[in-house]
Specification:
328 residues; alpha+beta; Structural Genomics Hypothetical 15.5 Kd Protein In mrcA-pckA Intergenic Region, Chain A; Pseudouridine synthase; 8 helices; globular
Length: 328
């Protein structure tokens, strides 16, 4: 079972985990940490006494529960498969499905699907922990192409390709366009900034033009496809792979993604014409979609382009913008 949550107070790593896992002793938690099964803000931490701060994201990777409590069962979940071979498969992840279980009420995740589809309990990766073939992430509210490794070799090689930035990722989003926003002023370009967790909001990330403590470099290429009435269809090509990268970058350049529950809340929709505003309000999901992954297969050496079709909500907005753009 995996466990993911955001730390609410500053303390030693082992103390935080003991408090979170009521059925684990301190010695069991110590073994768990030293085995490399704990990640803080995306990095493995093996020191029990490491200080974890409020707002840090803590992920305890797959482990066995050995107590009198009934272990949390995995859900039966079917997801559409776009492509599959002997080494990996690509699914078309729907919006609303998380990759990992989070804190609070349990709901089906991609890990549930992987465990069922691969018919194994774990896929140990070279670092010594298990993630059921997960080699990259999509936010819960983002839909689209997600790769899953089917064995240890595939997990190692695909993880390497992502780390070395040899997989070209293409996303499509629908954004609000402010008058001074970079996505509005330019048809294509490159956004370079620094990204870090927002100190005032534990679930959000914030970008800045200058490097700050704990910030990481963030590079994003973009191309504007359609623009009409302060709304644009944008192709994004993230070079780095930071958490919430496209969502935080869009906010940074004053062009937040439509219906983003964390980053678009301050945009005044009243500036839109009534028909477009009404159409957007009918759509309940965030309008960000992972369109394709392009890479050289490390096993067959074939050039792979794995694509996902745009969801109907995107097509509805795009068709509206295209039809009205002619008369602008």
């Amino acid at each position: 079972m995996s466990c993911k949550f955001v730390v609410t107070h500053t303390a030693r790593l082992d103390k935080i985990i003991v408090d979170a896992l009521k059925n684990k002793s301190r010695s069991q938690v110590e073994k768990l940490i030293k085995a490399g099964l704990v990640m803080v803000n995306g990095e493995i931490v093996k020191k029990c006494g490491a200080i974890v701060n409020s707002g840090d994201e803590l992920l305890i990777l797959d482990f066995d529960i050995k107590s009198d409590e009934t272990p949390e069962c995995f859900y039966e979940l079917s997801l559409p498969i776009i492509f599959e071979n002997d080494w990996y498969l690509a699914i078309d992840k729907p919006t609303g499905i998380a990759v990992h279980p989070g804190a609070g009420k349990r709901s089906p995740t991609v890990i549930d699907f992987s465990r069922k589809h691969l018919k194994i309990s774990t896929i140990p990766n070279p670092a010594g922990y298990s993630e059921f073939g997960i080699v990259h992430r999509l936010d819960k509210d983002t839909s689209g192409v997600l790769l899953i490794a089917k064995n240890v070799d595939a997990q190692k090689e695909l993880s390497r390709l992502f780390k070395e930035r040899k997989i070209r990722k293409k996303y499509l989003s629908i954004n609000f366009l402010s008058k001074t926003g970079r996505l509005n002023l330019y048809d294509e370009g490159k956004i370079e900034c620094w990204i870090m967790r927002d100190p005032s909001h534990r679930l959000r990330y914030v970008c800045s033009s200058e490097k700050k403590s704990k910030s990481r470099d963030c590079v994003t290429f973009f191309r504007k496809i359609i623009k009409y009435n302060n709304v644009g269809v944008i192709e994004f090509f993230p070079y780095t792979g930071r958490t919430h990268q496209l969502r935080a970058v869009s906010k940074f350049v004053n062009c937040p993604i439509v219906n983003d529950p964390l980053y678009s809340t301050n945009f005044d929709e009243n500036c839109l014409e009534p028909a477009l505003r009404a159409l957007i309000r009918k759509i309940k999901r965030m309008l960000l979609h992972a369109v394709s992954l392009e890479f050289e297969c490390p096993f067959t050496k074939n050039h792979m382009i794995i694509k996902s079709n745009l969801p109907k909500e995107f097509l509805t907005i795009i068709n509206f913008l295209k039809s009205h753009q002619k008369f602008e």
